[in-house]
Amino acid sequence: MADWDAIVFIAIVLVSSVICFCGHWPIFEGTPIQSLNYCCTGGCFDLLEKFVGLVCGARGRHVVSSVEHYCCERPNPILQLFYFTILGGAYFAFVGTSFQYIPGPYVSVVHRYLGTVSVVVGAVLFLLTSCSDPGLITSTNVSDYLTMYPYDGILYEEKTCSTCNLARPPRSKHCSICGRCVARFDHHCGWTNTCIGENNLRYFMAFLFWHCALCLYGTFVIAAIVAGEVKKRNLVHLLTFYYGVEPSLQKLSPYVFQWVLAFYSQQLLLLLFLGILSLLLTGFFGYHLYLVLTNITTNETYKWESYKRWKQHVSSSEGPKVTSVDGSASSSEQVSSPRLVGGYLRGAEFLGIAVGFSFLLCG
Question: Which residues cross the membrane (predicted)?
Fold first, then answer.
């Protein structure tokens, strides 16, 4: 049963990763992978709405639309609660399965306390990011934000937010989910249920860095626990002396892995869970660190991509109707960023949920 738990967990994570991050690639065009990617990044609600509409009529379709609107287009604590479920589930799984092996040959007793403190610090950083002001633009501070960055005449021109009825500072954006303008808007984070902007980006980066370190730390501690148990039970000596296994890493590894899988499957599952999260979070943190170092926001990356596509369209089009477009006058109208960010963020969130659920189910 332990073998199947590990196999199911690995399969779920690998398939979910390919679907979420590779499903839009041209190589998967017209394949089930592309369809599943569309489903995971927003199409599932469209399909559900059509199905319910056929079965229950307009009233049922309205209910599904309302649920989608609340879950995807309005501030809600769903992913915040799920974060605490995953954090608490992983911590108590570690306490219940691995605390008994601390201290060990490679693990000091200090890790009993250091692990708990690390989890608490991670939760505090999460709450700090969730509850801090992202840089809300109001009538009292809009003048300060207007002088913070210059207008570039391409992505940002002098204009007024039609919803807030306030002048829109450069690099700001009106978040349709929160219903407010945010200075130096980066993105709306569903996990923290708030926007990431000028004032809370530092907390968000600290949150990402700490959770990368936390997952890597947990991976190291569990690996050290398992290695310590292998040493305490003289497994290598037993395999080589009594069973005649050649004393080389290549020959011993399959037998050691089978033994660990048979007697320490819970630790192995937790190790895989934390290891995969470490890779995902490290990649996400590295991407955002790159954006910080290059002084660009997530929102601006998509705006620039949209602008480049528009410029390519203008340069490749024929006829005076298109080529006579005045870039300085119309660039801001043409560079309306498509809602690709939401799809990718929903894909990343779906992957995080899939990893979490597979861990909770298999654990």
Answer: 6-28, 81-103, 109-128, 207-228, 268-293
